[in-house]
Amino acid sequence: MDRSHVIATTQSAVALYRRAPVTFSLVASYLISNVVSTAWLDYRLFVSLPGGPLPKNIFGWAVHFFALSPLSLARSWTSTTLVRCYLPQAQQASLEDRSLTTGASLPRRNGARPTTAGTTSHRQIDQFRSSSIEGDAEAASTAANDALEHVLAALDQQAQEQPSHVRLGRSQIEPDSTALFAVSHTLVTQSEAVSRSTRSARFPSSLSRRFLSSLQGEFAHVHCTRSPNPDGRDSSLHVTLHPHDAALVVELGWGQLHPLAGFPSYSGFWIGWPAWLARWRPKFPARWWSNSSVPRQGTATKAMGLPPTYCLLYAPRDSDEAQAVLHILDAAAQFAIGTPPPARS
């Protein structure tokens, strides 16, 4: 826009103000106050959510609000059956088949989905305790804590029983979280040659090797931090799943895709399409997928960003929900290292 256009626009605004000063002032005040209020509330939410790679200050918030939030997928894509449009590998899967790739059956989660917020970090902010234990907050809190301890113990057991293929450590994505890493030889060297560390394992698929290449092999972490909501501890998890398992987890209410899932390495362009287009045209993609989004057989090129199947698993509220979460973690481990999980004690 050259100088003449700027002058013309300014003159038009001044002329409009002179014709209707009260209306002009009211509209301008409303727009400015709305923008400032939205930005302030988003900043307070950003600094209150624990974890994430960005610093909890005005600079981290600016990156989150102006750069990452506009690129995030809408909730219609991440929390509904539209997820199958986003995961092309899961198109042939059926919701009637509730079996994970490990063969375990996954029930439907009770109740409505919890509220989630943020992009980096991305967190669950309510429903940490079961509402079925009416009138006994202490019992509900105890059940939730027991469920968390059950999940943490299972992570430790998996690392101990498969030390050549799974490592338990501090998350590279969420430093305050406990994570499981795939340490298979093929994830590091991209080689199909058998090594001492992988002699007893099946080789991970090209798909899982590509998905985990940007995460340094980290395929699951549990947050287990104090939530800003007084409802309880945040024991939600982030996991990378096979596309069929990711679709099943979302549709049965156990989790949702991360808003930046698949960004940027798995998209032809950094564009998020509106969800109504998918309802108007079946199988319409959430983002503009490129032909190289999913690796071909025998290839495992390194990726950047979060995998398309990067999911937030909601916090387990009791032992039954903890068992379902463990089935999902087993599926994540099998996808990551190519080996069925050991039998649980």
UniProtKB/TrEMBL annotation:
<dbReference type="Pfam" id="PF17648">
    <property type="entry name" value="Luciferase"/>
</dbReference>
<feature type="region of interest" description="Disordered">
    <location>
        <begin position="97"/>
        <end position="125"/>
    </location>
</feature>
<feature type="domain" description="Luciferase">
    <location>
        <begin position="217"/>
        <end position="332"/>
    </location>
</feature>
<feature type="compositionally biased region" description="Polar residues">
    <location>
        <begin position="116"/>
        <end position="125"/>
    </location>
</feature>
<dbReference type="InterPro" id="IPR040841">
    <property type="entry name" value="Luciferase_dom"/>
</dbReference>
<dbReference type="InterPro" id="IPR048273">
    <property type="entry name" value="Luciferase"/>
</dbReference>
<protein>
    <recommendedName>
        <fullName>Luciferase domain-containing protein</fullName>
    </recommendedName>
</protein>
